[in-house]
Amino acid sequence: MDTTVEQENRTPEPMPTFEEFGLRPEILKGVTEAGFRSPSPIQQRAIPIILSGRDTVAQAQTGTGKTAAFGLPAMNAVQGSNKVEVLVIVPTRELASQVSDELYRLGRYAGIRTVAVYGGQSIGRQVELIRRGAQVVTATPGRLLDHLKSDRLKGFNPSIVILDEADEMLDMGFLDDIEEIFGYLPTERQTLLFSATMPPAIRKLAQKILKEPIEIDITPKDTTTNADITQRYYVIEEREREEALVRLIDTETPGKSLIFCRTKKETDTLSTTLVSRGYAAAALHGDMQQRQRDETIDNFKQSRIDMLIATDVAARGLDIHDVTHVFNYHIPFDSDSYVHRVGRTGRAGKKGTAITLVTPLEFKTLSRIMSTSGAPIVYEEVPTIGEAKKQYQNELIGKLQHQHINEEAVELLQQLEEELDSSQIACKAISLLLGQQPVAGPSRIGFSSQEVERMLDRFKRRKRPKPRPRRGTSNRMPPRKQRR
Ligand code: ADP
Ligand code: MG
Predict the structure, then answer these.
(1) Beta-bridge mates of residue 325
(2) Could you tell me the sign of the dihedral formed by the alpha carbons of 387, 389, 390, 395, in that order?
(3) Is 63 in the pocket of ligand 1 (CB under 6 A)?
């Protein structure tokens, strides 16, 4: 299994552990066997509250580990009776079996028996499995209500009831069913409601079925891109990626940088190029030996290299505090990975810069990322070689102004003054320094702002829906068949 990078989480900040919750050892074994190393944010917040017995309303995006967030504390409370102690209500069959599987996986060492209950399956068999002593039932509303109404579940008294993916229940029109189900449940119970979003109808439902709940909300804010990160994109042609990246590295003068590529091969090629151009860069990808990867990450942390060229997978969980720049050598496909990548910089209140290279063919992806993540990514032109040189010169001036004069230099100057006057010496010295400047490459890289504006305009116009032809008014088009 691919664990190297996740282990990186342990340093430099101690990561919270599952042990800290005081879960039973048998439950912890399930957690370890599932490969969970550290609780996710929703798990960190929800588990202690649920363990304390309070009703809980928790809001967190998909994929944040909500199942274990309610499943672990709920199963921790299971007494091992032969009765249903935990009821999870989920909106779909797929979720019923998925959640049930996950709960089984986490609870198996505690001897917890789980059953999924949903439509389209034999009623008799479901009832039989429950009667045989399942303590955790994961059910869809329709089938559950069916069982309850026909009184097939004798002595059904779950002490913990969880409504999972509540907003989806609403979308699927299950709210009435849910309310009805709660009419059959014991009033003395702990109720938990989990949802990715919290529309008013769900809030209202929560007021009805929960008692003085504690509310947890870990949606975006710090997971979408934060305000300390400046985000820019540059429009280039496919063949210009390398030159554009190098030009931007030279003009940005970044500290530690993460450069994201799409493939392992690309990270290798790019790191070879950058190293040969004199940058302290290294690739990080899943095919590397664990020791080699640990070493690379350590080199980056200790600033022996200052550019890490990585794939999304390799960079997962990488927590390095002083990354000044994130470069998207290729734009990621979806906004989650964009947000994730960009979130590697601007950490712990520091400023960061995220730079994305796009070709006109990638406008669509860019536009999708901007609209779903809400990230304020602004367009900029790749600096010309003239601008890059100018910047190098300004930096040189700054350096000269602050340069400490050492004794050897004074001696050398006296020697030189025997043949040259001081302004000649100064000019020659500066020429020497300028000769060492690394700025190279083509004069112009990428499209100009006018070109980009025209392209964006065309792109937007293409995206706008075409006006519908009104029936009878067009004499060019044949009458359409009725839609639908
Ligand atoms: P959600 O319900 O919030 O959409 P899930 O509970 O389905 O998320 O979890 C998403 C995935 O993450 C699952 O494959 C789950 O096994 C995994 N997962 C959950 N918690 C952790 C953790 N602490 N460490 C690693 N993986 C986890
Ligand atoms: Mg879920």
Answers:
(1) 257, 353
(2) positive
(3) yes
Distance between Cα 90 and ligand 2 center (Å): 9
* Domains of the chain listed by start with CATH number: 13-217 (3.40.50.300), 229-385+441-463 (3.40.50.300)
Q: How many residues does the chain have?
A: 484
pTM: 0.52
d(CA 291, CA 317): 17
Phi and psi (nearest 5°) for 192? Answer: -125, 135
- Sequence-separated (6 or more) residues with CB below 8 Å from residue 57: 192, 193, 195, 198, 206, 210, 213, 214, 215, 216
Contact 56, 213 (CB under 8 A): yes
Parallel/antiparallel/unpaired status of strands 214-217 and 136-139: unpaired
For ligand 1, say whether the CB of 40 is within 6 Å of any of its atoms. yes
pLDDT over 70, % of the chain = 89
Q: Which two tokens stand for residue 466?
A: 């075409």
How many whole angstroms from 62 Cα to the centroid of ligand 2?
6
DSSP assigned state of 138: E
Tokens 């100018």 belong to residue: 390
Q: Is the CB of 141 under 6 A from ligand 1?
A: no
Measured CA to CA, the distance from residue 323 to residue 311 in angstroms comes to 16
For range 97-105, the mean pLDDT: 94
Say which residue, 150 or 226, is predicted with more confidence: 150
Under 8 Å between Cβ of 12 and 95:
no
Ligand 1, atom nearest to 64 Cα: 3
Establish whether residue 107 lines the binding site of ligand 1, counting it when its CB lies within 6 angstroms of any ligand atom: no
Is 314 in contact with 287 (CB distance < 8 Å)?
Answer: no
The answer to whether residue 476 scores a pLDDT higher than 70 is no
Residue 332 and residue 353: Cα distance in Å, rounded? 16
Exposure of 24 in the CB half-sphere (CA atoms within 13 A): 18
Alpha-carbon dihedral 57, 60, 66, 72, rounded to 10 degrees = -50
The highest-confidence range among 141-145, 169-173, 447-451, 462-466, by mean pLDDT, is 141-145
Q: What is the pLDDT of residue 239?
A: 94
- Given the CA of residue 38, which atom of ligand 1 is nearest to it? 23
Angle between the N-to-C axes of helices 363-373 and 335-342, in degrees from 0 to 180, rounded to the nearest 10? 70
| pLDDT, greater one: 403 or 20 | 20
Placement of tokens 């429009």 in the chain: 235
